[in-house]
Amino acid sequence: MTFDLEYNSERTLMIIPEYGRHVQKLIIHCMALPTKEERNTMALAIVDVMGNLQPHLRDVPDFKHKLWDQLFIMSDFKLDADSPYPVTSREELQEKPESLPYPKAASKYRYYGKNIQTMINVALSWEEGEMKEALVFTIANHMKKCYLNWNKDTVDDAVIFKHLVDLSDGKIDLRNSDEDLSESKNLLKKRNSQGQNTTKSAHKKQNNNNNRNRKRQN
C-alpha cells in the first residue's frame, strides 16, 4: 500500500492563510468547473463557508462584499463567476494610498499643544476688559505649565510672554505687565501632587479589591 504525501514545500502558496488550505483547494476546484452556472453555485457555497469561518466579520459593514472580494483575491482574480457586488480589480488592490499631508497649522512651539492656539483665538475675539485680562493670564500660566512639562526645569516669565506674542501675531503683549505668573515650583508641585494622588487612589482601589476577594474566599 502506498500513500501520496503532500509536503508544505510542494504546496501552492495560500494567499489568505486565515481560511486554511481546504478553502484554497475549493476555490481551485471551482475555477476548474466547466460551466459558469456550476462555478456560480459553488462560489456561493464557498462564500457561505468563509462567512462561517470568520464570524467576527459579520459586524463589519458590507460583510458579504468583503467575502466576495477575498474569494476573487484567493483565486488570483482568475475565477470566472458572477458576483453580486462590483469586483475589485488587481490594480485597485495594489494601488498605493495618497500620502497624508503634514499639518500646516502646526505651531513652532508644539509643546504648548494645539488647544493653546484655540484658547488664544478665543481671547482675541473677546472685548477688552477684566474677563479678557483674566483669560489671557490663565492662558499664560497654562503655557508656563506646558513648558515645564516639556523642559522639566524652570522658565522665565519673559520667555512665556515672548511666545504668547508670537502665537497671537503680536496682538497679546504682556511683556510690560506688572503682574507675574505663577512660580515654577508651585506649578511643578501641583503636577507632582496630582500624580501622587492618582497613584494613591490606584493603590487604595487595589487594596479594597484584595480585601473583598479575601472575604469571599473565607
* Helix percentage: 55-70%
Mean pLDDT: 81
State the order of secondary-structure elements, H for helix, E for strand: HHHHHHHH
Class inferred from helices and paired strands: mainly alpha
List the uncertain runs.
194-200
**Main beta sheet strand tally, sense and closure:** none
Shape: elongated
The portion of residues forming beta strands comes to under 5%
Radius of gyration, CA atoms, in whole angstroms: 32 Å
Please report the number of helical segments: 8
- Report the strand count: 0
Distance between the termini: 64 Å
What does this structure look like?
The protein has 218 residues and is an all-alpha fold. Helix content is 58%, strand content 0%. It has 8 helices and no strands. The longest helix has 34 residues. About 3% of the residues have low confidence.
List the helices and strands and how they pair.
Elements: H1 20-31, H2 36-53, H3 63-74, H4 90-94, H5 114-125, H6 130-151, H7 157-167, H8 184-217
Offer a quick outline of the entry.
The chain is 58% helix and 0% strand. The chain contains 8 helices and no strands.
Keywords:
about 220 residues; mainly alpha; 8 helices; about 0% strand; elongated
